[in-house]
Amino acid sequence: MRKPMMAGNWKMNMNYHEAVVLTQELCNRVKRKDLDKVDVVICPPAISLRGALTVLDFDKTKISVGAQNVHWEDHGAFTGEISVPMLTDIGVEYCIVGHSERREMFAETDETVNLKVKALLDGKVKPIVCVGESLSIRDEGSAVSYVCAQVNAALAGLDDIDMANVTIAYEPIWAIGTGRTALPEQAQEICAAIRGQLRTMFGDEVADSTRILYGGSMKPANVEGLMAMEDIDGGLIGGASLISNDFKELIEVAAR
User: Fold this and answer.
1) For a pLDDT cut of 70, what percent of the chain falls above it?
2) 41 strand-pairing partners
3) pLDDT of 139
4) In terms of Cα–Cα distance, which of 162, 182, 203, 84 is closest to 154?
5) What is the tens place of the pLDDT at every residue in 190-214?
6) Is 101 one of the catalytic residues?
7) Is 71 tagged catalytic?
8) Contact status, residue 128 vs residue 68, Cβ threshold 8 Å
9) Are 223 and 250 contacting, i.e. CB atoms less than 8 angstroms apart?
């Protein structure tokens, strides 16, 4: 059985103090028994990573912290970037890579995503690798092949041991921040194809054990239908992760 995961991507929201307050609200509201059944990750802006970790450490709450981006080099003249050793130094366990907003607005490519995945794994940080198609690609009928090619490129050069620490997040670009959500059957189709691609690349054991999250406007109103799908193991949550009660509800559904 794959343990569900709910990961909150806070994007460029919450100043330092607001991030600390939201983290404390989650500590107070999420049931400890649910945290035994679901891996929960919050991904604040970089400036708030240490603050969130401090709250969680003090409260002894079993919620992990992830970054939203990383550079593949350990150090150097890369103004504005953050390295894997910087993340591990403060206790960050996860990192999102290849989010569609990074690909679209900051020119990330399949090749740079692969470099980041390898750097994170080398540094013992667990990557959450994002893949997904635009509306035009979906409308032309090539969503499955496009997403599987992204998976293949992002995970190139990895082995079975590496894959034990990798999570895939399927995020249909047309359903991010738009209020639109893929129907559960649409999300399942792509997530099943991703698992099939993993089976081709790494075999049955890796394919059956790798978590695949859905990352397109999951919220309390639609979480049950999405989580009922065979190949959806949780969510990469945007807006709903900024509201502690909403995020708590998503965790509760995943814990059932």
Assistant:
1) 98
2) 7, 64
3) 87
4) 162
5) 999 999 999 999 999 999 999 999 9
6) no
7) no
8) no
9) yes
Using CA atoms, how far apart are residues 68 and 120, in angstroms rounded to an integer?
Answer: 12
What is the C-alpha to C-alpha distance for residues 73 and 70, in angstroms, rounded to an integer?
A: 9
Query: Tokens standing for 190?
Result: 């792509």
Scanning the structure block, which residue is given the tokens 């366990």?
93
* CA-to-CA separations, 69 to 11, 45, 94, in angstroms, rounded: 10, 9, 10
User: pTM, whole model, 2 decimals?
Assistant: 0.96
Which among 6, 18, 56 is positioned nearest to 252, based on CA atoms?
6
Chain mean position to CA 183? 20
The tokens for 155 are 């995970």
Tokens of 131: 């893949």
Please pick, among 101, 108, 133, 171, the residue that the annotation labels catalytic. Answer: 171
Q: Give yes or no for residue 179 having a pLDDT over 80.
A: no
- To the nearest whole number, what is the mean pLDDT of the chain? 96
pLDDT in tens, 49-73: 999 999 999 999 999 999 999 999 9
- 126 - beta bridge partners? 94
DSSP string covering 67-113, please? ES---SSSSSS-TT---HHHHHHHT--EEEES-HHHHHHS---HHHH
Q: Which one from 71, 99, 101, 108 is the annotated catalytic residue?
A: 99
Decide if pLDDT at 135 tops 90: no
Mean per-residue pLDDT, 133-141: 90
- Residues 232, 248: Cα–Cα separation, whole Å: 18
